Amino acid sequence: MAVRPPRPHRFDVWAALAGLSGGLLLWGLGLGVRRAGDPIVLFDGRWPLLVPLAVMAGCELLRRAAPRAALLTGTLALAADTMTQGSIATVVMYTDLVYAAVLYGTPGSARRIPWIAGLLSIAGTLVPYAVWRVPEALLIGFAIGVVAFAPASTGLIVRNHREAAQSARLRAEQTALLAEMDRTQAVIAERARMARELHDMVANHLSAIAIHSTAALSLDDERTSRDALAVIRENSVQGLSEMRRLIGILRDGSDDREPAATPTLDSLGALVEGARANGLDVVLDATYDSVPAPVELAAYRIVQESLTNALKHAAPGRVTVLLRRLDGGLDIRVASPYGGRDTPRAPGSGAGLVGMRERAALLDGTFEAAPENGPDGRLWVVRASLPVTDIAQGEVE
């Protein structure tokens, strides 16, 4: 595959044309660096200096595309120019090549060129003075410093500033990217939290409404229908109350009315009574002392979802709810009769177990739900262990 040669930058084209035009103008006026007959001039006359001038202008075209090759070729052209009457335009274009080689070249070239130029300046100062022992010899090192070391140092300073600005820009972009990732993760976490709250609040009441409305429609008994409608109304009112609380949280205090209080473990008795009203035979055995609010809410929601699942899926029998405050944690166990029911009494989304597992994981706790064999038959047992430590308020809700 053919490799295309580097294409000159537009600015480099204009720089080459300007240098060549300036050199031709000086040549036309007869202005050179050295006089005819100078001992250093090996190629006398006006025409020989046009060759280094043209070569140097060609190197200017590659100052950005191939800075190293341009500098090496330009150095040879400058050496040839010193053997002619010379042109100030050739010298000026060479200083630009040194500057461009440091600025646009490789990092290694950017480090080496200033050092080489500096050493040449020192050598050009000391060696001629040591040989000739005249003050004018010091001007050779000064000229080398002006032509090579000064543009190389300038290019290095500009390159360092550009790299520092680019590093700052990259750090700003990375910071913005990390901030956007944090914002996205926060939004996802908040959506998951609200999804858990909605599911835990609504699923229990809607399941009871679905079950009792089915009973009211299927049984032709006035008393049974009235009892079912009473349960439906109670669950509707409680569901609306929970929804108002959630809406109050979403409003973040924009409404003058205060949202309902967050459920705590002290509300488990009312939760169990509601489950009994919905038709479950529930026994609550809870022993605990003060626990952090996040643990209270997580434990309440786990028991609530377990009772909801028992209402929808459990076989007839007793449901036991056990809470124990042990050293370093709060243990929860909800057991309900398992098996004997082909279809659930109310449809479900399948998100209940996922939500309970997430609540336990957010508190670095454990959760498991699986069938077990008990003395009274097959049971579906939900177990959760929530660490009780100094958890920040509001970490989980």
What would your notes on this structure say?
By secondary structure, the chain is an alpha+beta fold. It folds into two domains: 10-174, no CATH class; 265-272 and 279-397, Histidine kinase-like ATPase, C-terminal domain (Heat Shock Protein 90), CATH 3.30.565.10. The chain is 61% helix and 11% strand. It has helices spanning 10-29, 50-61, 67-81, 88-104, 107-132, 138-218, 222-251, 268-277, 293-313, 352-362, and strands at 281-287, 318-326, 329-337, 366-374, 377-387. It has a five-stranded mixed sheet. Helix 1 runs antiparallel to helix 4, helix 2 packs antiparallel against helix 3 (67-81) and helix 5 (107-132) packs antiparallel against helix 6 (138-218). The protein is rod-shaped and about 130 Å long. Residues 254-260 and 391-397 have low confidence and may be disordered.
Keywords:
alpha+beta, five-stranded mixed sheet, 397 residues, 5 strands, single chain, Heat Shock Protein 90, 10 helices
Secondary-structure map with pairings?
Layout (H helix, E strand, L loop, with lengths): L9 H20 L20 H12 L5 H15 L6 H17 L2 H26 L5 H81 L3 H30 L16 H10 L3 E7 L5 H21 L4 E9 L2 E9 L14 H11 L3 E9 L2 E11 L10
Parallel strand pairs: 1-2
Antiparallel strand pairs: 2-3, 3-5, 4-5
Helix pairs in contact: 1-2, 1-4, 2-3, 2-4, 3-4, 4-5, 4-6, 5-6, 6-7, 6-9, 8-9, 9-10
